Backbone:
């Protein structure tokens, strides 16, 4: 039986990542453009439902089940996906029918998200869904986005539970769109890995190395003594397990982003 990571280790790794994003928030926000994979997510998960919502509104049938398009962005960060989604939906003439909620544990990053001034249909909430999984909005949602998040969730059990919880929050016909970071397939990966032992030597809250799971890494930022973040890179077996935890059938699975065009693996799961 797989031994689960201790709660104190999960929280210590979570605190490490919160400290990281507090330290680099301004630089992070300035350096992160929209991902190319967003377009296919929009085409598969958003455009058809938004079009149906718009048609219902124009016909005066907004009280019918089609209703408005509600999106939940888990790990919204500085609002990168929110801004892209607003622009894309507006360009398609569908922006009026979209209600967006973005949640993230990083107050500094969310300050940048709110500063974008996306409008009253876009709201952001500071919420630590790793420390308090039950605090996630209940939905239901036509789209749940989980972009660049899973690798920051410590413990296999917590990752599986997060996907199961989000799958339950989908509306019928809704889509859970997630990414799995594949930096471990990139030649730059090894140069970014930092030692847990070196981190523990100067950390106020050391990490129990005996409690770590296969695929757990610390990645550096900038120079050799810069801040580090916790990341997890799943192997093929765990990837399959994660997708299965999302409960609903996969309608698409593709690679996109980065110089290689394969930095992220996208998986879209749709509730019938």
Residues:
């Amino acid at each position: 039986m797989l031994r689960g990571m201790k709660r104190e280790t999960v929280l210590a790794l979570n605190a490490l990542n919160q400290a990281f994003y507090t330290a680099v928030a301004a630089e992070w926000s300035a350096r992160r453009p929209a991902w190319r994979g967003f377009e296919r997510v929009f085409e598969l998960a958003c455009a058809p439902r938004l079009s149906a919502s718009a048609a219902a509104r124009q016909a005066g049938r907004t009280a019918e089940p089609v209703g408005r398009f509600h999106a939940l962005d888990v790990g919204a960060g500085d609002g990168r996906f929110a801004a892209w989604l607003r622009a894309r939906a507006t360009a398609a003439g569908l922006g009026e029918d979209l209600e967006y909620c973005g949640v993230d544990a990083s107050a500094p990053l969310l300050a940048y998200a709110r500063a974008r001034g996306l409008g009253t249909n876009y709201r952001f909430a500071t919420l630590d869904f790793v420390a308090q999984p039950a605090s996630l909005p209940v939905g239901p949602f036509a789209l749940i986005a989980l972009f660049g998040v899973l690798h920051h969730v410590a413990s296999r059990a917590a990752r599986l539970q997060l996907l199961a919880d989000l799958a339950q929050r989908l509306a019928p016909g809704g889509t859970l769109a997630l990414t799995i970071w594949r930096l471990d397939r990139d030649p730059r990966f090894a140069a970014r890995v930092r030692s847990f032992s070196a981190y523990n030597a100067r950390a106020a809250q050391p990490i129990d190395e005996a409690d770590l799971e296969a695929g757990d890494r610390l990645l550096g930022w900038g120079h050799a003594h810069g801040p580090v973040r916790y990341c997890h890179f799943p192997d093929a077996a765990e990837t399959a397990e994660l997708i299965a935890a999302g409960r609903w059938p996969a309608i698409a699975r593709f690679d996109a982003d980065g110089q290689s065009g394969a930095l992220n693996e996208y998986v879209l799961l749709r509730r019938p």
Summary: Residues 7-31 form the longest helix (25 residues). Strands lie at 69-74, 98-104, 122-126, 141-146, 170-181, 193-194, 216-220, 228-232, 250-256, 264-270. The chain has one domain: 7-184+237-270. Residues 144 and 176 are 5 Å apart (CA to CA).
